Amino acid sequence: MLHANDVRSRFCVVHGADDVPAAKPAPDGILQCLREMNVHPHEAVYIGDSPSDGRAAAAAGCASVAVCVYMYVCVRVYTHVYARTVLV
Predict the structure, then answer these.
(1) What pTM was computed for the model?
(2) DSSP string spanning 53-88?
(3) Which of 2, 24, 44, 59 is the most exposed place for a label (fewest CB within 10 A)?
């Protein structure tokens, strides 16, 4: 998707589910990217569009931003589980 939309060069590190031992909601992908960028989890903000993104960010120790399409679901999930999440 990044290559197809010609935006891959805007990201210094990219990992998908096939690149890490466990996919989201496990934090493996986030933590791998942070290690490669030499960034600590408390210094990072993860942006996602699903509850599994919020779970992965929380498990990694990151703050997160939820870009919500279905606001009711996002508000219900994120506000009750993830204190360090901003809804957009």
Answers:
(1) 0.77
(2) HHHHHHHHT-EEEE--SSHHHHHHHHHHH-TTEEE-
(3) 2
